[in-house]
């Protein structure tokens, strides 16, 4: 009997120890499970969220002022579009800071004449030419209707020299300023517009209506620029400097057309034009 009792006590002791071990093991497994959950949560929180592509060249420049002049992918609406960005140094009087290309236009072609549907539509023209910089390939990019700005950089290349003019104007897009055909005034002055052409620029002395959708009642008109007249009104101007011209008899869509007693002689100077916004 004593032997049986001893065996029973040993069995109880072993059971108690085993129970404690089982409880301890369960507790340790629980702690390990909690630790695993914590590690997984930390891993989840440390995974970087996808970075949305920038929507303008200025946004890229503001993050890295050493960004080079080149094409970048911009998020325009629901699409990623390759757009040339001028970051510094090449746009003359416009300065740097991240300029977004909108348009390149050849004054000898009617692609972007005043009456072209391109000015009022939201359809790109040759977007594949929008990432190639200051060359002579025409383009109209979705930045025309998608990119807001506070400054516009206008450039004209005449005789191998490209000159730039900066215009301070805030708008939701360039399309907003132009598409409805309403005249919107600027106040740069005739001499500023003449600098785009250079020393051979010529305008009549009166009217000097400048801005967006500048026109009289005749054939001379321009989407961005200035029109002038030899008479003391703006009804029948015969001269312009600008982009989106409509002097069809001389087929000048971008540049300088002047006749009927202009201040520097008759001109029909066709330029290659560049439009950037910031």
TrEMBL record:
Residues 1-19 form the signal peptide. Gene3D superfamilies: Gamma Fibrinogen, chain A, domain 1. GO terms for molecular function: oligosaccharide binding. Keywords: Disulfide bond, Signal. The keyword Disulfide bond applies. GO terms for cellular component: extracellular space. This is Fibrinogen C-terminal domain-containing protein. It comes from Pocillopora meandrina.
């Amino acid at each position: 009997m004593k032997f049986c009792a001893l065996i029973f006590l040993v069995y109880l002791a072993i059971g108690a120890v085993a129970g404690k071990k089982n409880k301890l093991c369960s507790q340790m497994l629980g702690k390990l499970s909690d630790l695993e959950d914590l590690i997984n949560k930390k891993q989840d929180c440390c995974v970087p969220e996808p970075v949305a592509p920038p929507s303008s060249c200025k946004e890229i420049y503001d993050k890295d002022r050493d960004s080079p002049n080149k094409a970048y992918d911009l998020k325009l609406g629901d699409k990623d579009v390759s757009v040339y960005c001028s970051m510094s140094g090449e746009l003359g009087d416009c300065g740097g800071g991240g300029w977004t290309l909108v348009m390149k236009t050849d004054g000898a072609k009617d692609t972007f004449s005043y009456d072209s549907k391109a000015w009022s539509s939201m359809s790109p023209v040759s977007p594949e030419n929008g990432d190639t910089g200051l060359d002579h390939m025409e383009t109209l990019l979705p930045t025309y209707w998608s990119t807001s700005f506070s400054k516009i950089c206008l450039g004209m290349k005449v005789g191998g020299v490209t000159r730039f003019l900066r215009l301070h104007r805030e708008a939701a897009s360039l399309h907003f300023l132009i598409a409805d055909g309403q005249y919107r005034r600027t106040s740069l002055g005739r001499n500023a517009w003449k600098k785009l052409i250079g020393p051979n620029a010529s305008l009549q002395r009166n009217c000097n209506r400048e801005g967006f959708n500048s026109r009289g009642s005749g054939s001379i008109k321009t989407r961005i620029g200035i029109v002038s007249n030899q008479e003391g009104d703006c009804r029948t101007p015969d001269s312009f400097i600008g982009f989106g011209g409509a002097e069809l008899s001389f087929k000048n869509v971008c540049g300088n057309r002047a006749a009927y007693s202009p201040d520097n002689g008759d001109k029909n100077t066709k330029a290659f034009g560049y439009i950037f916004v910031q």
